[in-house]
Amino acid sequence: MIYDDQFGSPQRRKALTAVVLVIFGVLILRLYQLQLLYHGELDKKSEENSVRALIREPIRGYMFDRNGKLIVDVGPSYSITLAPFEFDKATFPMLSSLLKIDSLTLEERIARARTYSPFLPSRIRRDVDIRTLALIEEHLPVLRGISYEIESKRVYPTAVHASHLFGYRREISDAQLAQLSEYYRQGDLVGIAGLEARYESLLRGKKGYEFVSVNARGQIIGSFEDGKRDVTPREGSDLLLSIDIGLQAFAESLMTHGNYGGAIVAMDPTNGGILALVSKPDFDPSVLSGVTPAELWSQLQNDPAKPLFNRASLTRYPPGSTFKMVLAAAALQEGVIDENYRIRCTGGFRFGDRVFKDLHVHGSVNIVEAIQRSCNVFFYQLILKVGFDKWTEYGHRFGFGQATGTDTGEETTGLLPSAAYYDTRYGKGKWTQGFLVSLAIGQGELGVSPLQMARYAAALANGGTLVQPHAVQFIRNKSTNKIEEVPHTSSAVGLSPHVMALIREGMQRVVHAPGGTGGLARIPGVISGGKTGTAENPHGEDHAWYVGFAPFESPKIAVAVMLENSGFGGAKAAPVAGLLMEKYLYGQLRRNLPRPAPAKLDTTRVITQAVH
Amino acid sequence: MFEYFKEYFDYKGFLICLVLVGIGLLSVNSATFDVGAAAAFDKQIIWAGIGFVCMLVAAFFPIRALQRIAFPVYIAMLAVLLVVLVVGKSISGSRSWFGLGGFGGQPSEFAKVATIIAMAAFLARTTTSLSNVKHLLIAIGFAVAPMVLVLAQPDLGTTVVFFAMLLPVMYWAGASNSVLAAIIAPILAAAGALLGTLTFLVTLVLAGALLYFTRQNRFAAAVAFALTLAIALSVQAVYERLPAYQQKRISTFLNPELDPKGAGYNVMQSKVAIGSGGFLGKGYRQGTQTQLNFIPEQWTDFIFCVLGEEFGFLGASIVLTMFAALLLHGIRVASLSKNKFASVAAIGITSLFTIHVLINIGMSMGLLPVIGIPLPFLSYGGSALIANMVMVGLLMNFYANRKEH
Fold first, then answer.
1. d(Cα B3, Cα B15) in Å, to the nearest integer?
2. Which CATH number does the domain A51-142+150-236 belong to among 3.40.50.150, 3.40.1650.10, 3.90.1310.10, 3.40.50.2300?
3. Mean pLDDT throughout B33-51?
4. Where are the domains of chain A?
5. Shortest Cα distance from A48 to chain B (angstroms)?
6. Which residue of B lies nearest to A45 if distances are taken between CA atoms?
């Protein structure tokens, strides 16, 4: 009989129990053998067996200007790293003196490295000079756990600053690191302003790793597994900019020459490509390219002149009379008036019990002449005819009160007041039509950035297309060597050709007709259009504005110039804009620079302090 | 009060399971921390939660109903394994994954449970007699069908598991020594065939002797020997067709030291990791071997190294003891059960755990070849964790109903 029913018999239970006990006996014995008998030998092996992953930093992407000129370069920078687990405390004084770091700071950095990871190397000194590097290398056999890495730091081969445009990098903050720990580690530089920040993920490339075996004394004894696990770093992508570096340099010199604080934005009106972007006071970006000493950083941050602040896209000043074309567009396009509509300017406008003044008595003016001569009275009464809502709508159509979508760094949306805004701010019925009268001439709570104004100028130049401002036209991927165009959006302002022609005629007369306010923007041999503006400033002298474009028929450049605390737009901003456009159109100036204005604001102060 | 609770709630199995899962989570966390795989830990916590719910469901599932659905579930599992073969995702050279909305599932883990239940249900039928050759072959067939499908994936580890659990289950169900010999003989010869001609001949002689001394019928013994020979030769033929990485795993097992950076690498590193742990271990998250990621993806099959290195002999032997206690408890549940289905199933579950623990820890310590099977409750992997927790739930169920026929 094959089947003898021993199902669940006590003998079989005992046999199975015995099997389990034998198995576990063997496993425990083996565990005992490995962990207690062979412990010494295997522990030694484990120590000998250390593998260190040396991070190979990729080369950061370059930046080229619109003519292919290299304007943001990279150079080598050496950082000393420390792996806390392997570090020998006995070598602490030696390390401190070699690196010229006081023992307190060094201790703090090692503690930070340990909290990041006891096993992975962290940077303890960035951007050391070649001499220090040579000394460290000489002592590597003694300095356990110490190593060095090569990274790229920025080098700026041209004399331009373009500090706010290029931006800069700083060591990643703990808060950022907590979010981005997949790629970054402590001490990594990360773009925090300008193009460096906006294109960080493309510029940085991808880190590589080299695995090396290290012996018990921390010396590298060779590559690990013949480098089979190594990962080569991937170079960062290059940015091909729309910037004209010659124009950028000239724009910066114009500001320095006149000792102006403020901003200049020049743009290709056909596509929104930024030709030059200046914000003054600025700083030399190379002082932030490697390691930034804490004193220098706090000096830059606490400087009352605010050199780190990007005036081109973050300031929010009233645009003054440069905004009058918005109201003109609303009135003409909505059919509230036509070109034959005239009023008589008596030099003032009574509204309620208040009199709004004009600079001159302009007599009988129509819309074109009102733009040409910047007649306030014309626009005071016009906004009451057009109404608040239409004015806000056309302001919005020209891109005000909203982000431009620029890639050049942080920007403000500005403030485009609306009835709803005043209702929430002051309460329903608590504000009067008198508020409108100020808005008509671009004063009051209206706030715009120079970048928004440049886009506005571009829309008036190109016949009514609102472009997306941008500095990066193409991106060159170094792995595939393909150049990709960066797509940009645009939208129509929605003005009829006739309305557009009337407004543009007014702007041309601003520059070229007798009695125009922008005669100083005239470019020899070129017809251009523009508008001056003076923003009332309750805290000091007025801010000067000029927006314009040239040549008049097929514009190649649109500009916005804003000079802080320097007075009338027609006197100060218009000549700067004229010279800038001339330089761009001819490649050089056809006249001598006007005499510099007396020094008011020392824009070079920050730079000299930073260098010395 | 506690007496009543003890009577109907298997707190031993329950607690051991939870503590092992907890230790597993700690180890997975340590192994994945710092090497960019921390998401594995978060997932494992979710799996443990799902497993806990499934465990409770299994613990309170009516045994009669379980017996009734055993065959349909088993057939469905076979179908799923077949589908996996055709459309499954390939993970490290083996098509064993089933992609479902972003989460992969490993049906072979659940197939193990389904097979145990179906075999137990078959063996527990009053009409089933192991003296009937047809019934015997059907019983073996329950294990062989999924085994073949899993082998075709190809997943060597799981195949071995299916085969190895057959023996204790038949043994417990009451098969005679000659029947057991007929099962052992081919396994022995097949294993010998994989290790070379000489070992093949030696094991063939051993198999023959085993059959001869337990014979009850000369003809049957002769047939069994012929089958043994056939199976051993075909296993060898299959071995030739195995992917190189699995062939290498088997062949370098014999002497891993010869090739420390090749296929024997994992075993060497694993031994170094465990050995360097010493008596007390290097401390949680302080293991250099673990933290420097010497052993690739050790949170899956090599999780025991983390234990050994970071918690030392003390920690690792506590874990071993807990496993032993769970297995002895499983045998106890089997012998207390008045219901044959529950009793045989309990042994099936217990032997499944035993094989996993033995092979996994054995390979981590260089005692057995590296065939990738997870350590129950501890290794990273959702399907295995849920399946294992379900099986503990079943043991709890069998314990609570041990007095029912």
1. 17
2. 3.90.1310.10
3. 78
4. 51-142+150-236, 245-607
5. 11
6. B272
Task: Give me the mean pLDDT over the B351-380 stretch.
Answer: 88
Q: Residues of A numbered 17-36 whose beta carbons fall under 8 angstroms of chain B's beta carbons: which are they?
A: 17, 19-21, 23-24, 26-28, 30-32, 34-36
Taking the C-alpha atoms of residue B397 and residue B62, their distance in angstroms, rounded to an integer, is 8
Residues of chain A positioned with their CB less than 8 A from the CB of B173: 7
Which residues of A, range 81-100, sit inside 8 Å of B by Cβ? Answer: 85
pLDDT value for A606: 39
Q: What sign results for the dihedral spanned by CA atoms A356, A358, A364, A370?
A: negative
SS3 A231: strand
Strands (E), A40-145: 50-56, 63-64, 70-82, 122-128
What was the pLDDT predicted at A421? Answer: 94
Same fold, A51-142+150-236 and A245-607: no
ipTM entry:
0.87
To the nearest whole Å, the CA of A115 is away from the closest chain B CA by 12
Beta bridge partners of A529: A549
| pLDDT tens digit sequence for A549-601 | 999 999 999 999 999 998 898 899 999 999 999 999 998 887 776 655 544 44
CA–CA gap between residue A609 and residue A524 (Å, rounded): 39
The pLDDT value given to residue A607 = 36
Question: What homologous superfamily does CATH list for A245-607?
Answer: DD-peptidase/beta-lactamase superfamily (3.40.710.10)
Asked if residue B220 lies in contact with residue B178, where contact means CB atoms within 8 angstroms, the answer is yes
User: What would the mean pLDDT of A204-212 be, rounded to a whole number?
Assistant: 85
Q: What integer pLDDT is reported at residue A226 of this predicted model?
A: 75
Is the Cβ–Cβ distance between B267 and B302 less than 8 Å? no
Q: Evaluate whether A455 touches A322 at the Cβ level (below 8 Å).
A: no
Contact A57, A207 (CB under 8 A): yes
- Are A213 and A39 in contact by the 8 Å Cβ rule? The answer is no
> CA of A27, closest CA in chain B: separation in Å?
7
pLDDT tier for residue A142 given thresholds of 50, 70 and 90: confident
CA atoms within 13 A on the CB side of B374: 21
Which of 164-223 (A) contact B at CB < 8 A?
Answer: 182
Q: How confident is the model at residue A289 (pLDDT cuts 50, 70, 90)?
A: confident
Which is nearest to B13 in space by CA: B383, B399, B404, B379?
B399
